[in-house]
Model the fold of this input.
Amino acid sequence: MQPVKSVSKFLARTTNVIRGDRQARFRLLLVLARWLAPNYRFKWPAMAWWNDETFNAYLDAFEESGGLNTDRRWNLYQLLRLVDGVDGDTAECGVYKGSSSYLICEVSTYAQRARREHFVFDSFEGLSAPDEIDGVYWRRGDLTVAEETARANLIKFENVRFMTGWIPERFEEVANRSFAFVHIDVDLAQPTLDSFGFFYDRLSPGGVIVCDDYGCTTCPGVTAVIDGFLSKRPEKMLALSCGGGFMIKGVRTTTLPSPARADHRASAARGRLPA
Ligand SMILES: C[S@@+](CC[C@H](N)C(=O)[O-])C[C@H]1O[C@@H](n2cnc3c(N)ncnc32)[C@H](O)[C@@H]1O
Done:
């Protein structure tokens, strides 16, 4: 009796999958994933933001719709809304093709804050040489892109100032300014610490620093240097579930135990993502 029931259940499910039943296909995906990548954590697919036309048009423009970074892009888009009432300029350290800077400038425009200057810091020669703390995932020169690509992608924004060079060489040129929002995305410990230290001191009350690499096992040095820097300050990083984290200047934050840290170090030593 039992095997017949199972076979008919299996056939019914297969028919649903073939007919294009979305729920049946999702369940099949989960079954396959449990076999192929047992520790991978899926989430419910009922996300309203997946249907946001404005945001999807932005992802399409940067050819990121099918990529693995859409959650982090969405989080950045939302976090930018926190600084509507905060004075100061905006900055990005690690610009690559300009996709996050585009969002930063776009939200400043929505907020009628287009008079904020947006400073972009990048070598456009990719990453510098990783230190021991960075593990073995990254290599010098990774993520190189032509400066012209970023310039072309940001051309519609008149307030963008290119500060091309190795971080922190050109920071002094903005030393007298204050900032409302800073995005740090340079993957390695030293330029992250240089950027965090410089901009933390110049962040207006209520201003936000987002670091794209915080909490990612591919960038163990980034998490370590930021936590070290903030250990003597009232604000701490809030780690986002899809990677990345942020802090708000002047907002005291509870310190949690971090069991992930040992895992970061172990996977960095192995030079790959945790299984
Ligand atoms: C992950 S990409 C940035 C991605 C970008 N935020 C985006 O939205 O797509 C890292 C960038 O950091 C830059 N970079 C890394 N280390 C740097 C350093 N020490 N000085 C200047 N630029 C650096 C690289 O050239 C690269 O463009």
